[in-house]
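Deliverable D4.2, example record:
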Amino acid sequence: MSGVANPATVEQCLRMGAGFTQGDRTWIAEQFGPLDARLASFDADATELEISVKDRQSPGQKVTLECWTRDLDKIVTTSTEDDLHAAIMDVRDDLRRRLTDAKGRRIPR
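Output generated by the structure prediction step:
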């Protein structure tokens, strides 16, 4: 149990930034489902995720995923994978790793 009254989830916290539409939201939220376990230790009212893409579907596109929580410094992950799906998975996995690392640093030893 996370001990948080209103645990954050991707569904509650995700917003679409530049380059994505609300129509992309459901598909991206499904891909980001594995983040829910990491986000659950943060309050939903104090957590935000924003995904954006620059030069979508072009060589050199850049996907950025930003995460803000009250408890941590802002986390920014990026990917320059040419394939949009691969780039989305890349930023998701990087954020998951960084949240795990940050949570490990917060736990007293």
